[in-house]
Amino acid sequence: QYEFTQSWIVLSQKTMITANTEWPVLCAQLCAHQDAFAEWASRARTDGAVAYLDKPEGWTSFDCVARLRSTLKQRRVGHAGTLDPLATGVLVICLGKATKAVRQYQETTKTYTVVGKLGATTPTDDRGSAEEVNPQATIRMQEISAPEIADALQEFVGEQVQIPPTYSAIKHSGKPQYTLARNGREFVVRPRIISIYSITDVTVSLPFVSLTMECSSGTYVRSVIRDLGAKLGVGGYVWQLRRTRVGEVYERQTITMQTYNTLVTTSEVYS
């Protein structure tokens, strides 16, 4: 599944974006090889490298970028697609000259597993803000069925115009929407064209519905659950979200931030 290349480990071309095999990759297969990590860290600092991280809940994507920037003393660091603070899963980070690969990772297909809660809404379209319940939605919740929810979800498959959440990292005049929203500033959320390729593994246990979704870059899962709730007339928001794939990078290939911190601590790179 992996091969050594000049003392570091990179995934084979069958399991990695081909154009990025020129960069050493920090992944799950590397964790058992301390010398390989030291070589990877050296390349990250002096040339370029890529890290496949499993972002923990409560961390922002920038928190992960900042951690690698500070420990590796590398100023050029970027991630290939924001994950919300409450979301977990695959976060690809590129360092040094490898930042030129960010766009290629960004433009790949993504896969998510999501648990949505129906019957209420929140300002952020996830459980990160106060729940708002409409009395009419409570009545409607007693009427909807699992087949109705499954049928409604399939209507989201295909190319479509999506309105992103008000609280998002999309920028207006150089400032993220979430900053403007928190400050009470008015702005118009710009719609975008996205594609949802499949929605599978639908399980309903009201008020929760869980599913797996494969979609294009730029898709907001929070918007899908919000719009599902609106379509059903009950409201909805994301309760739990995990990104399991970015292109050919799968969650099994990632390392946790705890593992990364352990590698940093036990290596001799920073002594």
Describe this structure in words.
With 271 residues, this protein is an alpha+beta fold. 27% of the residues lie in helices and 31% in strands. The chain starts with a strand and ends in a 5-residue tail after the last helix.
Shape, please? elongated
> How many β-strand runs?
15
What separation lies between the terminal Cα atoms?
32 Å
Number of helices: 8
**SSE class:** alpha+beta
Give a brief rundown of this model.
With 271 residues, the protein is of the alpha+beta class. Helix content is 27%, strand content 31%.
Salient structural properties:
two-stranded antiparallel ribbon, eleven-stranded mixed β-sheet, disordered N terminus, 271 residues, alpha+beta, 8 helices
Helices and strands in order:
Layout: E1 2-5, E2 8-11, E3 25-26, H1 34-46, E4 48-55, H2 61-72, E5 77-79, E6 88-96, H3 102-106, E7 110-118, H4 135-141, H5 146-154, E8 158-162, E9 171-172, E10 175-176, H6 177-182, E11 192-205, E12 208-215, H7 221-232, E13 236-246, E14 249-250, E15 255-256, H8 257-266
Parallel strand pairs: 3-4, 4-15, 6-13
Antiparallel strand pairs: 1-2, 4-6, 5-6, 7-12, 7-13, 8-11, 9-10, 11-12, 13-14
